Amino acid sequence: MKNYKSLLAGIVAMAMVSGYVSPNGINRIVMADEKKTEVPKSLSFKMNNLEEESVDLAKYAGKVVVFVNVASKCGYTKQYAGLEKLYKTYKDKGLVIVGVPCNQFGAQEAGTNKEIRTFCTSTYDVTFDMLAKVDVKNSTACDLYKYLTAQETTPLGKGDVKWNFEKFVLDRKGNVVGRFGSSVAPESKEFVSLIESALAK
After folding, report:
1. pTM exceeds cut of 0.70
2. 96 lies in the same domain as 121
3. In terms of DSSP bridges, do strands 129-130 and 54-56 run parallel, antiparallel, or are they unpaired?
């Protein structure tokens, strides 16, 4: 019996040294799990990227996220350049930009996901994340956009997306803190100011 108790004490001591068990006997891994940040509703969706790989939007938790519905043949398509510049300027501070191709506005995103990737890379050198083409309005809207467009936001209010390149801004807690129309450029003062404010919190 004495040898058994000594062996058991030795195992516990080794576990404590290894970090698996804390001095009060609580498993540290369990404690770490309990501290996990709850994923906000806005980032609780799973979608595909342009390569048809599954993307869990929960990976953006804790970041400032901009969702923007994009198109390759629109008068606002040049905003890709401004979005890319914004992303490169603030990504190290926690900004994520996510392009969401959609063909519901003037059929201006008719290409395949592969064609969209080629266009974005070759024309605007886009490096921010791009999701696969989806619907963003009406009853066929993907779950992400059903959620985003149901939120009371400023300067635009809730309701269907009106055109390409609308921008939704989420703070680090996943709250939708801004919604901007297509005509608001990525480098506009009001848009950048909101991004900087969200990043500072």
Report:
1. yes
2. yes
3. unpaired
